[in-house]
Amino acid sequence: MSPSTTPQPLLEGRTAVVTGGAQGIGFEIARSFVEAGARVVLGDLNIDAAQAAAEKLGGAGVARAVKCNVVDGADVDTLLAEAVDGFGSLDVLVNNAGITRDATMRTMTEEDFDLVISVHLKGTWNGTRKAAAIMREQKSGAIVNISSLSGKVGMVGQTNYSAAKAGIVGMTKAAAKEMAHHGVRVNAIQPGLIRSAMTEAMPQKAWDQKMAEIPMRRAGEVGEVASVALFLASDMSSYMTGTVLEVTGGRFM
């Protein structure tokens, strides 16, 4: 293949911000973006882990880390400013930061309900509205919100998390309608059972029960979520907005 026909990397020359980017799905998304030619800014509460992750991705020339609590609007402003001031643009935002505080409704504390709703729902709202304000000026941009299969079907012990993840879907669609004529696309991903340190710590009985619900008979890998995020972040999905893509191996389709 001659140099003139070599395909350009999907995110060449673009800058992406990933919240919760220090580990797990967030880190893998950031890694796939760098591989696709992007520069990335990782936002995370754990700044040491985020800085280590940025180094692993290639250091300050391609990846930077910012301490960010997504519930705090000023923190999110600082995070996005690092992309604009440090790398020259904000082209992609992935709202991935999240936590779980599982308990049945009977035993869940009000604090654990509020915290999960706040981090997922308000955090995603903060990221979406602040990124959209920057992106609308340049008449382009892609926002990818990480929801969960739990937001589609509801999971026992997750009234807080299921509500927040379902809320992200509604927010994604509303924001997509508001931003479409500004050239900004907003889409969501709902991962199912994805192999990670967190899911592998699950009791064997719970793991087996979940596996039995998956037609493809295996858990997903973080890279299989990252590749879908890359698709939604890139021009390959240029006529898609307000969509929810399930990455679940067919579970609860």
Automatic annotation (TrEMBL):
Belongs to the short-chain dehydrogenases/reductases (SDR) family. Keywords: Oxidoreductase. PANTHER family: 3-OXOACYL-[ACYL-CARRIER-PROTEIN] REDUCTASE, CHLOROPLASTIC, SHORT-CHAIN DEHYDROGENASES/REDUCTASES FAMILY MEMBER. GO terms for biological process: fatty acid elongation. Pfam families: adh_short_C2. It comes from Gordonia jinghuaiqii. InterPro entries: KR_dom, NAD(P)-bd_dom_sf, Sc_DH/Rdtase_CS, SDR_fam. One of its GO terms (molecular function) is 3-oxoacyl-[acyl-carrier-protein] reductase (NADPH) activity. Transmembrane segments: none annotated. Residues 14-197 form the Ketoreductase domain. Gene3D superfamilies: NAD(P)-binding Rossmann-like Domain. This is 3-oxoacyl-ACP reductase FabG. Its EC number is 1.1.1.100.
